[in-house]
Task: structure prediction
Amino acid sequence: MNLKTFIRFIPGFAWFLIVAVLLFAPGNEFPSTNWFGDIQVDKLVHAGVFGIMGLLFMTPIGTSSIEKRKKLGYFIRIAVVISLWGLASEFIQKYWAIGRNFDLIDCLADSAGSGIAFIYCKKKYT
Result:
């Protein structure tokens, strides 16, 4: 990977670090998410955050001169890795983050966001 290519991925890496800091901050640092009654705003936030991460990593590949078949393979790999990162982050929250716990629905929301980014990039770039 040359420097020009690496620079195109900096927004994705920066977003990853921001998300990691937020995911592992103590649980009492965040306001309650029951702003709209039974609607789980937290799940929408998870999907959005992980969807943005997917877009930030897939777009540099999508706009590159790589053949469409290879782009699709990269998009799949990125979506899977981001979903696995969502799962891993829940375990990290459970065992190491103060005041945080494991939530399987958060994992599903993370994967949904990653999947939406995949579908968008697949349609746009392949």
